[in-house]
Amino acid sequence: MTKKALIIGAGIIGTSTALELARRGWLVTVIEQHSGAAQGSTARTSSVIRCHYTRSEAIVLAHEGATLWDNWQAYLGRSSTRAAYHKTGVLFLMRQGEGGPPSESLGVKAEMDQHDLDNRMNMMQQAGVEAAFMNQKTLADFLPCFDFPEDDVVGIWEPNSGFVFPPVDSVLDLQQAAELAGVQFKFDTKVVNGASAWKGERRWIQSVTVHNDDGAQELQADVVVNCAGPASHHINLAMHCPLGIATAPQRQFICEATWVNPTSDVPAMADLAEGFYIRPHEEVFKVGAALAADHVNFSTDEAGLITEREKEKFEKRVLASLRKRAPDIEIADVQTKVAFYDWSVSDSYPILDGTDVGGYYVAIGSSGAWFKSGPVIGQVMAEMIHREGHGDTNRDFVLPFTKNTLNFGDFSVRKRLA
Ligand SMILES: Cc1cc2nc3c(=O)[nH]c(=O)nc-3n(C[C@H](O)[C@H](O)[C@H](O)COP(=O)(O)OP(=O)(O)OC[C@H]3O[C@@H](n4cnc5c(N)ncnc54)[C@H](O)[C@@H]3O)c2cc1C
Questions:
Q1: Within 10 A of 172 (CB to CB), how many other CB atoms are there?
Q2: CA of 13 relative to ligand 1 center, distance in Å
Q3: At residue 379, what are phi and psi to the nearest 5 degrees?
Q4: Buried b or exposed e, range 250-283, using 16+ CB within 10 angstroms
Q5: What is the model's pTM?
Q6: What is the rounded distance in angstroms from the CA atom of residue 119 to the CA atom of residue 122?
Q7: What is the pLDDT of residues 365-380, one digit of tens each?
Q8: Domains with residue ranges and CATH for the chain
Q9: Contact residues of ligand 1, CB 6 A cut-off
Q10: 389-406, pLDDT tens digit by residue?
């Protein structure tokens, strides 16, 4: 009998998971509280695709993401798509020193010693990521549009990385492919509760209750997947299934601007030394913050606490950092916006896992960094769910583009708590 799945949330991760489950023969419904897809965290993403991480499994996940975006039309089986991958290259700048604490905001360190740098380059090489190490001189020769006054500045350059534009349209591409594969999207519909029942020694998910203009409705399913982004913790509570690792919404500021003097040689970059990152697109040039120090306020109800003064302070600081590093870049019409990450409180890696409740899965805690692998996470989740639903205990998954292997336990709660 065809198995039924309910996906909570139509961001990049929910829409991707829905498409991939439908490709595996499941009957899938996506429940989304907003009137369309990609209106949560995904609406504000900078969509920078890079592979530099502190953990090898994260590099593997990111590399598959970059390769998939580079083959976006082939992945969707289409000859034209709304969104495209811009392979500008991505530069990560750090300081070479004794090695400070890891910046968990981006899964990388703002200061690295030689051992860390060698280790990082090795892990990237092993995963098949093309990357080059640069010192102050090679950086200055390679990117004359930037200033590199510090003699301890070092860079890791990824020539095949870049960004997706427009990111929201990439989710609409996924939605269209999902609908063609039979997925039903229920918009303006909010999940408010879940029900489970004991079967033998384990509780199993049975249904979720949703609210929309027609009132309350109970939807039955074999599987429910929490892809609710910054609301993930609330959904876990609504499903009566708190996890061993907490997630929380985390407030972020992001500047959006138009790029007045675009030149072709500006890559996407994350400058950990100066504390900012850029996505260089003419229509929506983005400048965000890139230091762990910005990521401190874990709260579920911060929205009312955002003041104009805070926005102005952020804008002033982040734009001053940009001007210092890249004095030739001219931007205008800067607007500072607010968005929320779904943060894995103990680190910055996603939680892709089953739970104590049979049939209830989570693809959450993407911590401001996993748009890049949204469609890969969709495949990992769908494959995990499909195999478990058919009694297949093999937990290794060969990623289709890079042929690297991920284990379903790599982003599990258990591994993190071990
Ligand atoms: C400012 C910013 C910059 C970023 N930059 C990058 C970057 O450069 N590179 C990168 O890889 N990643 C980046 N990210 C992270 C990336 O955007 C996120 O990891 C990704 O978009 C998360 O997608 P998601 O589908 O999990 O969540 P979301 O897009 O938030 O989707 C969750 C959906 O669930 C819905 N939902 C929640 N509760 C309910 C409910 N009860 N009932 C029904 N629906 C519900 C929400 O409405 C929402 O649409 C950035 C994020 C932000 C905010």
A1: 17
A2: 8
A3: -70, -40
A4: bbbbbbbbbbeeeeeebbbbbbbbbbbbbbbbee
A5: 0.96
A6: 5
A7: 998 889 999 999 999 9
A8: 4-45+168-246+347-417 (3.50.50.60), 87-162+248-342 (3.30.9.10)
A9: 8-14, 31-34, 39-42, 44-48, 190-191, 227-231, 235, 252, 254, 288, 339, 341-342, 366, 368-372
A10: 999 999 999 999 999 999
